[in-house]
Amino acid sequence: MTIKVKAPGSCGELVQGTINGVNFLITCPVDWYSEVSVVAGGSMDNAEPKTAAAVARTFAYLNTMGTFGLTVDSDLPVGKGMASSSADISAACQAAALAMTGKELSCDEIADIALSIEPTDGIFYPGIIMFDHVQGKIRRIMGTPPPIRIAVFDAGGEVDTLVFNGRADLASLNEAKEQQVGVAVELVAQGLKNGDARLIGQGATISAVANQAILYKPCLEHIINISRDFGAVGVCAAHSGTVLGVMFDDADLTGLEACIKEVNRACPEVIYLRTCRLIAGGLIITGDDGSGR
């Protein structure tokens, strides 16, 4: 039997920084997926190294071994801050566990395996989560997002997750913005609690601007101003990547297309990728017959 597991990507993070020196992010999962298929027998000779490592460490954790075929079907951009590696790794962990042992891993088990490979996004947890992406010390489910549409743009280039999180100046720069990040967390938490897209957008915007001192995105401030003119609720960003997203409440999308056109006109160095929905995170599991859980 073939096991298929889909994991969502992200449009960066709603918030990212440190609290009293502890790293964390608040996930921003979107309906743009990576799907990993595992079938007993075959080989994984062409598997990407991180995905292969995820499978090997899952087998070690479950104290099992075997041969299998693995394929990854994903069009998530790599090195952009869209959780492409986290999606591949988490889906591979779950698919390998189910295919070889029938055991479904918990989110915490997947997190532990993923964090042993590299800093990871928490998009495989249900809902929106506050998650320590470096050591896993914080794992707090915050709620389910209200309907929000996100126009995703790429500011260009690529960022290596391991290199970024290994920066010697990162801790001091995160410490310098803890006050702004704290405000952003409170706004997003209140927005999730009340189903208020505007509060979530305000918090995301504060965090995106505060991160400019760590990883500068050209045209961000201009895009924030444009987005306000067209009725957007805020702008989110990849704090260790290159994408940013203009966020619209689903209840009012009248300015969405015009906003995309104006950003394209005013900021030609920033490339529009696609429009996604902010979703509750979590893995989607299916089998040969298409049945899911």
Give an overview in words:
The two termini are about 15 Å apart. The chain has two domains: about 1-140 and about 280-285, 2-Layer Sandwich (Ribosomal Protein S5, domain 2); about 145-280, GHMP kinase, C-terminal domain (Alpha-Beta Plaits). The mean pLDDT is about 95. Helix 2 (about 85-100) crosses helix 3 (about 105-115). The strands form two sheets. Strands 1, 2, 3, 4, 5 and 10 form a six-stranded antiparallel beta sheet that branches. Strands 7-8-6-9 form a four-stranded antiparallel beta sheet. The chain is of the alpha+beta class. The chain has helices at about 50-60, 85-100, 105-115, 160-165, 170-175, 180-195, 195-210, 220-230, 255-265, and strands at about 1-20, 20-40, 70-75, 130, 140-145, 150-155, 235, 245-250, 270-280, 285. A hairpin with a 5-residue loop joins strand 7 and strand 8 (about 245-250). It has nine helices and ten strands.
Outline:
By secondary structure, the chain is an alpha+beta fold. The protein has helices spanning 49-62, 84-101, 107-115, 161-165, 170-176, 178-194, 197-210, 220-229, 256-266; strands at 2-19, 22-40, 68-74, 128-131, 139-143, 148-154, 234-237, 243-249, 271-278, 284-286. The protein is built from nine helices and ten strands.
How many structural domains can be distinguished in the coordinates? 2
- CATH architecture descriptor of the largest domain: 2-Layer Sandwich
Please give the radius of gyration in angstroms.
Answer: 19 Å
Strands, count? 10
The helix tally amounts to 9
SSE class: alpha+beta
The dominant shape is globular
Helix content: 25-40%
